[in-house]
Structures are given as structure tokens and as C-alpha cells.
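Let's practice the habit of predicting before peeking. Look at the sequence and jot down your guess about where helices and strands might fall. Then scroll down.
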Amino acid sequence: MKPLKNRTIVQIISLIILTVAFVFTYAASAGPKPSSYAPVNITEDFDSIMARMKAAKPEIMKRQMDLLQERYDLSDNPAVGVTMSRGKPVQQGVRAKLPDGMTWEKLAEMTPEQIREGGLFPKGFMPLPHPNHQEGGMLFPKMVIDEVKKQEDRDLTRFDLDFDLPEYFLPEFPAAIYLTTRPDLGDVSQGKIVNINNYYELFNGILNPKQIEGLRLLITPFPQQQFNQTEDRRSEKPSRGVTCFDCHSNGHTIAPTHLVGDIRPQEFRHRLDTPTLRGVNIQRLFGSQRALKSVEDFTEFEQRAAYFDGDHVIAAKKGINILDRGGQVHFMAEFQALLDFPPAPKLDLFGKLDPSKATKAELNGQEVFFDKGKCSVCHTPPYYTDNLMHNLKTERFYKPQVINGRYAASDGPIKNFPLRGIKESPPYLHDGRLLTLEDTVEFFNLILETKLTEQEKKDLVEFMRAL
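Done guessing? Here is the structure:
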């Protein structure tokens, strides 16, 4: 074997040095390796954490509100004569803003590829990030915070963030409560927020003992990721926690937001628009993406993991509430299964419009729904769901991008929610990106490529308001 020449030796040594330098440079630039777990041992004291996050709050909220203003028309514009069960006006009109020089008609004539390459997909149709997506966590509208504070002296204020969407885009508060077992009573809420102080008075004599106990558990506060006793909470004072009905107010929703607990890393997690519990008895899948097979599974999963961002390790630190499956879970699920949709007096036994009660626009909208609009392919009567998961593949229309910390690449399969009572559950889609029913019609007209006329869109909205 011939000895290596000096030049060859120098070249080999240089290559080794360059390789080592590259490895160290890459390791330094890559930062810490992503982890599926939240840190358990917090080394920063609470006062320092709170001061730091309070100081950062104005800039974070400005960034989110600038995004909303860029995406939407946020004006208060209620539809004339259209209200929810207890009288709250329903917002009207397409609120998503179009790119300059574009119309909805021109956009609908383009292919997904043309829209994607031209960057023309409306920003209001893109995934909506959490107000602080890197942080996430439960976040409540001010009206909920104020009422819970008044009724129970329990504070759901976060020192680091405020809720972002205007309250006139949210469901009414307090919401009506309808029971499948007692339709003769109509709204049994008496205009009150059901809480630990009044539930017995409101429901004794209407529910059986198991259902009353289930309701009690649904309005009992338990520790949660942001509201607990530890130094990494996001409430100024140590907190008893949150209740199921803080989010699902009166068994409905007031649209608080969160991040789904199922996805990692953080930037891929979806913002969650809390859905209504009305009509749980006819549903067969639970969780926007989890596809849990029973309301019992969902109830148990929520307090074991979802309350803690899907991290059972941090749950053990903050105060996991392990429910008894044969008793507590069953009682809670039994009450949830009693929550009915609001009355729809224009619908017949099959969930379709009674021609003697419906307007011409509503009947025309029904025809669009079952034919050209393709809505009924997934939303079948009488409750307007097929109880399946569907992937809309919205990523056909835009290039992957980061939006305020949310990596928008794809949504994946999403639970098909019922449309009964839909006018009472804004905003729409799993992350609340669609503020009105008109936005929803424009979104699906584009996604499904149905090319509806302006009149067909209006009629479709009228039909959905009657559901």
C-alpha cells in the first residue's frame, strides 16, 4: 500500500474539520430538540413569569387584532328580524375580505391551482390561529369571565391574553336549555346561567337523581392547565379550575377557544371553537379530530388529558381529576344526552321544510342544499349530519405558511357537526374562522366548486336559518 501524499492528508484533515464544524453549527442553529411534553419542573418564580407575560401581552394582542382586521369586516351588522332563541341578533353578511380587485364570482371561476399559485385564497378562509398560538390554552370571552366572577367569585381572567372575537359574533349568553325528555317545558333555563348555586333549584323535580348528579359534576370546577394552583398557571391568583359548563355554557357554547390536545408540535395544533352540546344524543363521534366513539369517552378524556393540553404528565402535577367510569362519567353523559336542539317549527318529521310554513326563499334554499350546493352529501336530515369525518383538503387552495405562530399546511379529517340550530352556534368551522353563515356559504362554494349564483347563496342562508 502506497503512503498518502502530504496534499492528500491535508485534504482529508480539512474535510474532517469542515464536517465537525458543520455538525456543531447545525446543532446550534437547530435549537433544542422538540418535545411532546410540557416542562414539569419550572425554575422561574411565578411573579417573574406573570410580569414577563403581562409585559408581552399588548404586543401579542395587537398582532392578533391586526390579523383579524386584515381578514374580516368586524362591524356590528345584525340581520333584521333574525334572532337566537332568547333574542340575540344574528350577524349577517360575508365578513371575509377579498384580495384587491377580486370578486366572489371571479374567484369561483378559478381552479384551486390558480387560486393557490396566485395567492388569492381569502385570508379569512385560512386557518385561524389562537391569540397566542405558541402559548395556547383555554381563553374565555369577557362576558363569561364577568358572570362567573359575579356568581361564584371564581376568576377566569388570564393575565397574559384576552379573547379576540367581538361578542356580537358569539352565541347568546345565557343560552336557552331544551330537554329531550321534557319538550313541553320549552326553555328551562329561566334566563339564568346554570351554576353550582342554582342547579338544584332549577332542575329538582325535572331530572332524575343520576342526571342531577351528572349536572352537578358538569358545573364543578376542577384544575386545568391554565387555571390551577401551580407556578405555571395563567391566572393571577391560585385557581380552583374550570367547569365543563364554563365552555359549554348552559349545555350550549359561548365559543371560548383552546388548542386541540392531539397534535404536536405546537405550531401544527388547531385552534378549537368550542361546539354546542345540543343534540349530543344523536351524535356518534366526539372531538373535532379525535373521533371518540361515545360521549362517555369524551367526558372522561376531557378531564384526564384535554384539560391539560393532552399531557397526562403535567396533569399529574396540576391536579388530574380521575372520574369513576361506572358512576360519575355515566351520570355526566346521561345529562348531556338530554340536551336538545332548539325548536324548528318550519321542519316536518323528516327534517325538511313544511311548504305551508316556509317562505319561497327558504324552499329555494332547501333545493340548493339538496342539489347544486352538494350540502346534503355530508349533512343528511333530520339532524343534518352523517356522523362521519371528512377531509375538505383546503390545502389545495394555498401554499403552506406560518400565520401568527400557526403553521397552516392542512386541516386533515374533521368531524361533521350537525346543522340543526346552526344559526345559534357562530362562529363556524372547527376553528371558528368563518364568522357568519354567509361566510360559510362562500367558503364551501369555493371549496366544493359548486358555482352558486348570488341568489342561490342568499336562499341557502335563509334555509339554514330555519333549521
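How did you do? The chain has one domain: 60-465.
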